[in-house]
Write a structure and sequence with these properties.
It is built from nine helices and 16 strands. By secondary structure, it is of the alpha+beta class. It has two domains: 92 residues, LysM domain (Membrane-bound Lytic Murein Transglycosylase D, Chain A); 177 residues, no CATH class. It has a nine-stranded mixed β-sheet with strand order 6-5-9-10-12-11-13-14-15. It is elongated. The N terminus is likely disordered.
Length: 348
């Protein structure tokens, strides 16, 4: 007769099996060949190509035997085929060579061995976050910069709302050149950037793109065209981490671009977020964190409950009426990952 302890263990194990169900098919990334199965049937089942399975298992032909363990590539995972180079793999998967190098911690132009596993940009494991990013030395004070320029320090948030001087500093950062001299943003946008800066311990925020004219993918409804959006980088913080934090704020827009080098944030008055797998300057390719969806489809992404708010009405405090906002230096718009100048991605 089994002891009470072992009976309890067995009961718990049975309950766990019932509650959790079978493990996900792609969790182990292996498949045991059954009698009569062909490589084509297995490839069709997992929605991968025969060549990808062959590369993952360093197979020359297609013969398999019952009981054989096969590695099955998952989304965002590729295996080098004989003679393949980084350039060929990048071109086949519509990513840049540099981003492919970064995702796999490679240097230069290494020679790939057949069967070598590579992770595509945007499919890297979720970053491990520290418990806290530290406290900012001066809450509400943001260090802003544009690519290739020295940073400026602007007091954006004050106790009563947003500083007029800080708002003008921010507008100077969002302007491309003299053509934007009469364009302005909103105090909500300034408050949003101050909130992001404070959350990440006052780290420097790089403005990749700000004000924009209607173009191919930036229509008249674009938040960039409306002057209430910016594509940003936060120094030392993974882009996905910035996006995940942005999603916890109510009534803002947050866009994650796994194949680019920035996060989109905007001060619209409704809560919206998305993942766009397109490269800079390309037509949008919406998807989830698992990968892009078929063209023309925008899949559902679960939305976490908001834990922070951004007021709809934000007063502006007049602190220096004689101040004139600085203009960015007369240089082309910064080059972002992928070689595109001033990203032209559409945002919902």
């Amino acid at each position: 007769m089994p002891s009470p302890v072992w009976a309890a263990v067995a009961t718990l194990a049975l309950a766990s099996a019932v509650l959790l169900g079978p493990p996900r098919a792609d969790a182990s990334r292996t498949h045991t060949v059954r009698a009569g199965q062909t490589l084509g049937q297995i490839a069709q089942r997992y929605r991968v190509s025969v060549d990808d399975i062959k590369a993952a298992n360093r197979m020359r032909g297609t013969r398999i035997r019952a009981g054989q363990e096969l590695t099955i590539p998952t989304a965002g995972e590729v295996y080098a085929r004989p003679g393949q180079t980084l350039e060929r793999i990048a071109r086949a998967n519509d990513v840049s060579v540099e981003s492919l190098r970064r995702a796999n911690h490679l240097r230069g132009n290494p020679r790939l061995r057949a069967g070598q596993r590579l992770i595509l940009p945007g499919f890297e494991p979720a970053p491990t976050e520290p418990e806290s990013w530290g406290e900012p030395e001066a809450p509400g004070v943001v260090e802003l910069r544009r690519a290739g320029e020295e940073p400026i320090v602007a007091t954006l948030r004050v106790e009563e709302g947003v500083s007029r001087t800080g708002l003008r500093y921010l507008e100077g950062m969002l302007r491309r050149d003299e053509r934007d001299i009469d364009r302005h943003t909103t105090p909500r946008m300034a408050l949003l950037l101050a909130q992001i800066s404070d959350h990440f311990g006052g780290r420097t925020i790089t403005v990749v793109s700000g004000f924009r004219d209607p173009r191919r993918f930036s229509g008249s409804g674009s938040q960039h065209v409306a002057g209430i959006a910016s594509d940003i980088q936060v120094q030392g913080v993974p882009h996905r981490t910035v996006w995940e934090y942005c999603r916890t704020i109510d009534a803002v827009g947050c866009g994650f671009y796994p194949r680019s080098s920035f996060v989109h944030v905007d001060a619209r008055e409704e809560r919206t977020h998305w993942v766009d797998w397109s490269r800079p300057g390309r037509r949008p390719r919406y998807g989830t964190l698992r990968g892009p969806a078929p063209r023309g489809r925008r899949p559902f992404i679960s939305m976490p409950d908001p834990t922070e708010t951004l007021p709809i009405e934000v007063p502006v405090v007049e602190d220096d009426p004689m101040y004139v906002a600085p203009m960015p230096s007369a240089q082309p718009a910064p080059v972002v990952a992928g070689g595109s100048r001033e990203d032209d991605s559409e945002e919902p």
